[in-house]
Amino acid sequence: MIDFLTRRPIAHRGLHDGNVARYENSLSAFEASVDGDYAIELDVQLSADGVAMVFHDDTLDRLTAETGPVADRNAEELRQIRLGPTSDGIPSLADTLAFVDGRVPVVIEVKDNGARNATLAKAVAADLAGYDGPAAVMSFEHDILAAFRDTGSRAPLGLTAEGIGRPALARHKEALALDVSFVSYHVKALPNPFVTHVRDDLRLPVITWTVRTPEDVETTRRYADQMTFEGFDPG
């Protein structure tokens, strides 16, 4: 059952404050999500030594005082790098799961790591193997979805998607053959025939990203089952 995906709004990269004092994808943002009883959406990249690390960008430049690719640093080096002026470091996925400890659902977006996509998918599956809390995995990348499915993990698998053109929608339909259990779709691209098919014909849940305005909230209510929000507190 994956009703945990739709039960409560999902905080995009945790309940951060726009990277002022509580940074995205930080343990502080995740603790705020728990306090608000919101599910957590987070991103993972692969470290140089093959560890799934919780970080959105493929480089360190935007969020830290360091520069260069995340993939050039090992996990312990990344843990020591501060997010902006805060005391939060870059956590591993294993660190994050231990911290959340099943208190709220976790939705893991596996980012594109190119030739190492399968390695990252396997690292995520390994971290989830002993985790008892509600958790799901999703990605834009079909090869990541296939690699994660092939690990035999029991975590629900979802397609992250956007676009309204025929080529995009046709490609999204191809991903349905990868045993996806839900779809996360760009709120600005709703409604569209693919999402209608997923909800009405396949009876799979659809969550939206990234909801920032009252109009986005209304679109989600009309055409999806739950929102991934940022920049406000849904209450």
Please outline the major beta sheet: 8 strands, parallel, barrel
Low-confidence stretches: none
- Helix/strand-derived class? alpha/beta
CATH architecture: Alpha-Beta Barrel
Distance between the termini: 25 Å
Oligomer: single chain
Shape: globular
CATH topology: TIM Barrel
Corresponding CATH superfamily:
Phosphatidylinositol (PI) phosphodiesterase
Instruction: Let me know the average pLDDT.
Output: 98
How are the strands of the largest sheet arranged? 1-2-4-5-6-7-8-9
CATH class: Alpha Beta
What share of residues is helical? Answer: 25-40%
Tell me the series of helices and strands, N- to C-terminal: HEHEEHHEHEHEHEHEHE
Number of strands: 9
Q: Over the alpha carbons, how many angstroms does the gyration radius reach?
A: 17 Å
Strand content: 15-25%
Would you mind describing this structure in some detail?
The chain has 235 residues and is of the alpha/beta class. The protein has a single domain (4-229), classed as TIM Barrel. The chain is 33% helix and 19% strand. It has nine helices and nine strands. An eight-stranded parallel β-barrel has the order 1-2-4-5-6-7-8-9, surrounded by six helices. Helix 9 (214-223) links the parallel strand 8 (206-211) and strand 9 (226-229). Helix 5 packs across helix 6. The longest helix is centred in the middle third of the chain and has 12 residues, at 117-128. The two termini are 25 Å apart. The mean pLDDT is 98.
Task: Write the SSE topology.
Blueprint: H1 4-7, E1 10-12, H2 27-36, E2 39-46, E3 52-54, H3 75-80, H4 93-100, E4 106-110, H5 117-128, E5 135-139, H6 142-150, E6 157-161, H7 166-175, E7 182-186, H8 193-201, E8 206-211, H9 214-223, E9 226-229
Parallel strand pairs: 1-2, 1-9, 2-4, 4-5, 5-6, 6-7, 7-8, 8-9
Antiparallel strand pairs: 2-3
Helix pairs in contact: 5-6
